[in-house]
Amino acid sequence: MLPASCRRAVPGAEGGPAPGAAASRRAAWLGSALRSAMARPWRALPRARSWGALAGLRARPDKFGGVSVDLAELRRPLRLERAAFGRWLRGAVARWREEGRVAVWLRVPILQSGFVAAAASQGFAFHHAEQGSSTLTLWLGEGPSRLPVYATHQLGVAVQHRLHTSLIFFPPIQTINAWKFPGGLSNPGEDIGDTAVREVFEETGIKSEFKSILSVRQQHEHPGAFGKSDMYIICRLEPSSFDISFCQQECLRCEWMALDEVARTKQATPITSNVAKLLLYGYREGFDKIDITMREFPAVYPGLFYKLYHRELPESYRNIT
Q1: pTM above the 0.70 mark?
Q2: Is 250 helix (H, G, I), strand (E, B) or coil?
Q3: Which positions ≥6 away from 29 have C-beta within 8 Å?
Q4: 311: three-class secondary structure by DSSP
Q5: Mind giving me the DSSP string for 163-232?
Q6: Which is it for strands 103-109 and 67-70: parallel, antiparallel or unpaired?
Q7: Residue 202 is a catalytic residue
Q8: Catalytic member of 99, 202, 209, 296
Q9: Domain named Nudix hydrolase: which ranges (predicted)?
């Protein structure tokens, strides 16, 4: 038996006070927590460890109004629970919507692929995958997604003109603020001329007909093409309408401008001013000196055709057999 001096200090001991309700609840909670931790030890990890693993993860805005998140920046990915990542992503997407962001790009290293399901449950979809990672996207803007599809190369087309003038526009979001020719990315299976006609109409409301290719710009490791090579085809189009009705999501301003002014202005991109000089030369000396025209031929594969682009070939040479 405990000494009398001790019996008064120990709850429940003979002669001591009975345990209170609060003490009983604390003891029951402690026992339950210990049993839970022994049965499922990972549940006993403090939630703070998961949130701490998210430290350093940044959303980087891009020039097109979206944000990019790279899970390779996670400091301790093994400590991050999928449920905690899902809660963080849900809150982040809600915040980006409020900020007016139009898209989210989420890069997931292959060893963190377990987080893909949490992203997919919130509407993310695969955009592309490479050897060591996958990239998912979520469109936040109005209407159907306008995000470009992934490809091994990227093809852009541009240019519209009429007599001594050219159609140019001022894009809302670019690396630099400058006049440029209307144009955009070619869809899979779309011919170069068809892309040029479609993009000019979508951006400016001007209807036109493809006439020729003027030049080609090749750029490797293009930041806007996911680090792939970019082929930018400069086309000459002949308009069949002239009243501008430009897309306010893609243009701030759009107007017909004299070619010599486009060639001289400091507010145009370098490729725009150089193509304007090429067009001036064509007007003065003849477009046969600058045009790269197109001819269609049957392919070696039955039922298929291809388009061959080259400088105009005299008929006497065309008919050589």
Answers
A1: no
A2: coil
A3: none
A4: coil
A5: TTEEEEEE-SS-SS--BB--EEEPPTT--HHHHHHHHHHHHH---EEEEEEEEEEEESS-GGGTTSEEEE
A6: parallel
A7: yes
A8: 202
A9: 140-281
